[in-house]
Automatic annotation (TrEMBL):
Enzyme nomenclature, EC number: 1.3.1.104
Gene3D superfamilies assigned: Medium-chain alcohol dehydrogenases, catalytic domain, NAD(P)-binding Rossmann-like Domain
Superkingdom: Bacteria
Domain Enoyl reductase (ER) intervals: 24-338
Coiled-coil residue windows: none
Name of the protein: enoyl-[acyl-carrier-protein] reductase
Length: 340
């Protein structure tokens, strides 16, 4: 088969980083993305060419297209960090030819008809894993396992905010199966029962006028010492300062555009509290290969058996995406998927 040399993609208009801090969600994607044919470079050793089936829009993608993420943009290259697709060509990874794989768009982005990826970061999929679950099988699921491991290192109970997110729900299910007590925090009411069903032992709603009192009672009862945080607002900081000695605030996302005040600096001195970060892009290369293989197998089994599922808000074609992503994303009802 002749290898394509170009592909239709949502291409990045700019390269590098933004010159000022970016919001989590921009007003429009039109200043950042362009639907056009982009060149597909020849495959380097260890790379594969993938016909993309489906790719999610993650919060990290929205930061990235604006230049506000932890790695620079390449102007003219497709956006999109992960997806599912079929391998149609390789340079030295022939065993993958024809396989349906979950992949990271490490060579070129996933919001395109074709993407180039590193074979080592492709996960051949079990037939029982749907395209939807396969499309979002790497970024959130591997992070969920790594974060629950961190939570466990802090004791029996932990707090997770943005708990209604796809990642939050994966964390809740895994925590329950591992016998941990997960305290879920969300910003608005409505999903409490669903989150209890998903695995939360307690659910707190930050917009509830009784939030502070309820949080104090829950913290007193369960003594959580890890706060898994994807929000980074003042409610998060206040919650952290209400937690017991030795508590760790693990920042892995910044859904809020607020800059929280650290109102009780003495707690870092006298109560041995810590703030730290987590980024899958650092965890993945630093974890032992056998640990990563075990996590990948665990993640795939959870989706294949229906223990985990991926909620979908809507599917968009490439030509619907630039105008359609943000309105669908704002419904907060699951992943927006791009089907190129
Ligand atoms: N560090 C890493 O390696 C890593 C890896 C994977 C994911 N993440 C991060 O994990 C987070 C969740 O990802 P996801 O794909 O699961 O997200 P998602 O499914 O798109 O859900 C986003 C969630 O964020 C909540 N949210 C948005 N703005 C908020 C605000 N201002 N205050 C409180 N909550 C807010 C939403 O709440 P509503 O339902 O109320 O709208 C929604 O539940 C993101 O920040 C992502 O970047 C980090």
């Amino acid at each position: 088969m002749t290898q394509p040399t170009t592909t239709l993609a949502l291409a990045l208009r700019d390269g590098g980083y933004a010159k000022a801090p970016t919001p989590q969600v921009p007003d429009s994607l039109a200043p950042f993305l362009d639907l056009r044919d982009v060149p597909l470079p020849g495959l380097a050793p260890g790379q594969v060419l993938i016909a993309v089936i489906l790719s999610p829009v993650n919060p990290s993608d929205l930061f990235f297209v604006q230049g506000g993420y932890g790695q620079p943009r390449v102007q003219g290259q497709a956006a999109g960090f992960e997806g599912v697709g079929r391998v149609i060509a390789t340079n030295g990874a022939d065993a993958l030819i024809g396989q349906r794989v979950a992949f990271l768009g490490t060579g070129t982005g996933a919001w395109a008809k074709h993407a180039i990826a590193d074979a080592a970061l492709c996960i051949p999929l079990d037939e029982a894993v749907s395209d939807i679950d396969g499309a979002a099988l790497i970024v959130n699921p591997l992070t969920a396992v790594a974060l629950v491991e961190r939570a466990r290192s802090g004791g029996q109970a932990f707090v997770v905010n943005a708990a209604g997110s796809q990642l939050g729900r994966l964390i809740l299910g895994l925590a329950r199966d591992e016998g941990l007590t997960a305290i879920a925090v969300i910003r608005r009411p409505g999903e409490e029962d669903a989150l209890r069903d998903a695995g939360a032992a307690e659910v707190l709603v930050t917009s509830d006028p009784a939030f502070r009192a309820q949080a104090a009672a829950v913290i007193k009862a369960h003594k959580p010492r890890v706060l898994l945080d994807a929000v980074g607002d003042q409610a998060t900081a206040d919650l952290f300062f209400a937690m017991p000695s030795g508590a760790r605030w693990v920042s892995y996302g910044k859904m809020s555009d607020d800059a929280p005040s650290l109102t009780q600096m003495g707690q870092f001195i006298f109560m041995d509290k810590h703030i730290e970060g987590f980024w899958l892009s650092r965890w993945l290369p630093s974890a032992p290969a056998d640990r990563v293989a075990a996590v990948v197998a665990q993640v795939q089994t959870r989706f294949a058996t229906g223990t985990w599922t991926t909620r979908v808000a809507t599917e968009l074609t490439l030509d619907q995406a630039i105008d359609g992503i943000l309105p669908a994303y704002a419904t907060s009802s699951g992943k927006v998927m791009i089907r190129p």
